Amino acid sequence: MKLKSRKRMLWFVGDKVVYAVSQGLKVIACVGETLEQREYGSTVVVVAAQSEAIAGTLIGKKVIIFKLLGT
């Protein structure tokens, strides 16, 4: 996936989370890497970017819990 479209997708997910919360919904957002990304060794970078896109929109409002599975 091209970098621009990946960033656009992350922002889109963040916007969807914000909208859902604004409508009174409780959101469980799942993040994770593809097999290709895992094999390439970019798990932490990918998951961090996904988490940041979501967390950046909800600062001070929600709790984020994560578990990094074995690599």
TrEMBL record:
<dbReference type="Pfam" id="PF00121">
    <property type="entry name" value="TIM"/>
</dbReference>
<dbReference type="GO" id="GO:0006096">
    <property type="term" value="P:glycolytic process"/>
</dbReference>
<comment type="similarity">
    <text>Belongs to the triosephosphate isomerase family.</text>
</comment>
<dbReference type="GO" id="GO:0005829">
    <property type="term" value="C:cytosol"/>
</dbReference>
<protein>
    <submittedName>
        <fullName>Uncharacterized protein</fullName>
    </submittedName>
</protein>
<keyword id="KW-0413">Isomerase</keyword>
<dbReference type="InterPro" id="IPR035990">
    <property type="entry name" value="TIM_sf"/>
</dbReference>
<dbReference type="InterPro" id="IPR013785">
    <property type="entry name" value="Aldolase_TIM"/>
</dbReference>
<dbReference type="GO" id="GO:0004807">
    <property type="term" value="F:triose-phosphate isomerase activity"/>
</dbReference>
<dbReference type="GO" id="GO:0006094">
    <property type="term" value="P:gluconeogenesis"/>
</dbReference>
<comment type="pathway">
    <text>Carbohydrate biosynthesis.</text>
</comment>
<comment type="subunit">
    <text>Homodimer.</text>
</comment>
<dbReference type="GO" id="GO:0046166">
    <property type="term" value="P:glyceraldehyde-3-phosphate biosynthetic process"/>
</dbReference>
<dbReference type="InterPro" id="IPR000652">
    <property type="entry name" value="Triosephosphate_isomerase"/>
</dbReference>
<dbReference type="GO" id="GO:0019563">
    <property type="term" value="P:glycerol catabolic process"/>
</dbReference>
